Amino acid sequence: MAPNTSASSALSWTVVGRGAIGLLAACRLQLAGNPVRLWLRQPATIDMQFQQQPIQFLPATPPLSAVFVPVKSYAVLETVTTLLPHLTADAQLVLSHNGMGSIEQVLPLLAPQQGLWFLTTTHGALKQADSVLHTGCGQSVLAPLNSAAQAHSNAVTAAMDTALGPLTLTEDIQPFLWQKLAINAVINPLTALHNCHNGELAQPQYQQQICAILHEVCQVAAAAGYALHYEVMLEKINEVIQSTATNFSSMQQDIMHQRRTEIDAINGYIVAQAARSNLAVPHNTQLQQQLLQLQQGYGR
Ligand code: PAF
What we know:
This protein is of the alpha/beta class.
């Protein structure tokens, strides 16, 4: 998609937090001439390096008109609630995280002219002490989630294309979220439990469990009205395992660093949706319980 630079400069962007994907987006936007400010718990000026160039981010100053919110699924509600009093009447918010369940929580909180978007990305980024590395060149899918978002489509689309493109704009994000959920429901908990690289999951001993998890996800997606083709998804999962073979998944990293994981928005979302449709999902249930136990072990 060709970026519409005049429209993108019409919005002044704030990025929440200092996670790797958020910083990657912030650096790419700023280098393209769209000044970005950071919204941090403790406001601060951040100096960093990106592609051998020094970049400085100033703290965000309300009112905020366009906010990229790449925070973990469990932090979305609290983050948006904190942002609400600082948003302009027609602010545009772009959510981006693994897992599902946040959209329906955030939509009712916004004023009629405030737009909500979701962006799902396959870009990889790694944050180091004072730099961010673009470790995997991916692509993103962006969708407006309400009519107030559609009213600002050109400006938000152009900016997100600059930040995390190449971009596909879709009217319905749900099929993309279900596909990503299926990938995360398999790779994330297994790599976290076995403390391994994604590529390890290509070993024969994992294949039965991978098939069982995916089978449950497909059943739940179908009951929710989104057909996931089992064979196609299995192929996609194997592709991701191959293409990210030497990477550690985000959940493996969370467990490794004793942080809270996104298990409730991934396998936990499958379990909750299954209960609504009276479906049994023993494999996803067991993974959720195992991960919760691990987290509780270090007090998260
Ligand atoms: O969460 C992650 O780590 C990523 O979404 C994925 C695709 C599993 C690759 O590691």
